[in-house]
DNA sequence: CTTCTAACA
DNA sequence: TGTTAGTA
């Protein structure tokens, strides 16, 4: 269900290939990395290895540059998106007061033997959908 | 031959 | 950003 995302994240492209795919110079690609806009992996003898996701990101960076943004500005955009996705992760694992109330209530019924664990229909989900 | 880091007539 | 030097 996500084999494609996995392959998009596989870092196997040398900088030379990325140059052709993005029309950027090696200098620029390395510079953007120094500005923390991309994080290619390293391998072999300290050589940079890029993923297709990295290539897309570089293409995206080029667009932002055309829109007049500087390195710091682009980084803020990505930092912002990263913070938003982190909040979503926490949100999924945070139970609302109502959820806690329901869980406690269900456990109480089970402990009292007034209800069979098999006939559990209105069980509170452990986590909410996105 | 390709890539890397560091540096600048 | 370009470019070059000296490596790995």
TrEMBL record:
Residues 117-130 have a biased composition (Low complexity). The keyword Transferase does not apply. Keywords: DNA-binding, Repressor, Transcription, Transcription regulation. Residues 111-130 are annotated as: Disordered. CDD domains: HTH_GlnR-like (cd01105). One of its GO terms (molecular function) is DNA-binding transcription factor activity. Residues 12-80 form the HTH merR-type domain. The keyword Zinc does not apply. PROSITE patterns: HTH_MERR_2 (PS50937). It comes from the Bacteria. It holds the Pfam family MerR_1. This is Transcriptional regulator, repressor of the glutamine synthetase, MerR family. It comes from Paucilactobacillus wasatchensis.
């Amino acid at each position: 269900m996500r084999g494609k995302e996995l392959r998009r994240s596989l870092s196997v492209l040398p900088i030379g290939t990325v140059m052709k795919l993005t029309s950027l110079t090696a200098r620029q690609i390395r510079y953007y990395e120094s500005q923390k806009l991309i994080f290619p992996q390293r391998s072999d003898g300290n050589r940079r290895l890029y993923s297709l996701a990295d290539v897309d990101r570089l293409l995206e960076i080029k667009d932002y540059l055309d829109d007049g943004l500087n390195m710091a500005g682009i980084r803020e955009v990505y930092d912002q998106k990263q913070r938003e996705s982190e909040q979503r992760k926490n949100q999924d694992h945070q139970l609302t007061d109502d959820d806690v109330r329901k869980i406690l209530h269900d456990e109480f019924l089970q402990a009292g033997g007034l209800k069979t664990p098999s006939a559990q229909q209105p069980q509170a989900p452990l986590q909410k959908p996105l």
